[in-house]
Amino acid sequence: MEYKVPKYLQIKTDIINAIKSGELKPGDKVDSESVLKKKYNVSSITVRKAFNDLINENYLIGVQGVGTFVAKERINRKLTSISFSDELLQQGYKIDMQVDKIEEIVNENIAEKLEIPPERSIICVRRIRMVNNEPVAYQSSFMDSNMLNLEQAQKICESKSFYKTLAEYNIFPVGATENYSVKAVNDSHIAKLMNLRKGTDTFFVKRTTYGESGKIIEYAETYFNKDWYSVTVEVKI
């Protein structure tokens, strides 16, 4: 007796083969539900079953009101380096940075995180992190102005690296703690720079970086596009 492959599985297999062959590339829009219904002579339920499986297996990503697209390869951070850039370079990614704003501010909440007096000014560096020419993160770094002044911070525009700029002034991070959560991008300016819709959920990372003396040298907040980003943590027993 001949075994008939379920139609949803046939749809699923055909899309996977198209992705693996390069016919469908990351970011490409796949045929709509109505097109696939006619092509395979199936119901909406069958097409949705195939789409749901492919989304759960990270082959596709659905954007409400827009369509279904081939998922982009995610950056997999293994947290092996303090520097985000260095870790991705080691993995063979092409990286870049676009400075959004460098400014001097006063903020009691940030000052508390830096463990400095509330009235002291803070240097804030806001930038877009690019990977393979795609914006994957929006990062805001805060430092005590007594450690790095505004003029010195401007050199980041030339070096394209926050930590390389710090090294020029003999500031070397030796460790950091990171806190991960999910947070929507509700700032329309940041959402636009990340090519996201306002209100889109992202991985939100709060990072505190320490120098050799144990003094806090940086507090940072980063929105990571969750469609591009994942983290692997190795636990040894």
UniProtKB/TrEMBL annotation:
Domain HTH gntR-type, first and last residues per copy:
5-73
The record's InterPro entries line, in alphabetical order, gives: Bact_HTH_transcr_reg (IPR050679), Chorismate_lyase_/UTRA_dom_sf (IPR028978), Tscrpt_reg_HTH_GntR (IPR000524), UTRA (IPR011663), WH-like_DNA-bd_sf (IPR036388), WH_DNA-bd_sf (IPR036390)
Q: Which Gene3D superfamilies match?
A: Chorismate lyase-like, Winged helix-like DNA-binding domain superfamily/Winged helix DNA-binding domain
Query: What's one Pfam family the UniProt record gives for this protein?
Result: GntR
Q: Which domain of life is it from?
A: Bacteria
- Tell me the GO molecular function terms: DNA binding; DNA-binding transcription factor activity
Q: Which UniProt keywords apply?
A: DNA-binding, Transcription, Transcription regulation
Q: Which BP terms does GO give this entry?
A: negative regulation of DNA-templated transcription
Q: Which PANTHER family match?
A: MANNOSYL-D-GLYCERATE TRANSPORT/METABOLISM SYSTEM REPRESSOR MNGR-RELATED, MANNOSYL-D-GLYCERATE TRANSPORT_METABOLISM SYSTEM REPRESSOR MNGR-RELATED
Q: What is this protein called?
A: UTRA domain-containing protein
User: Which source organism does the UniProt entry give?
Assistant: Defluviitalea raffinosedens
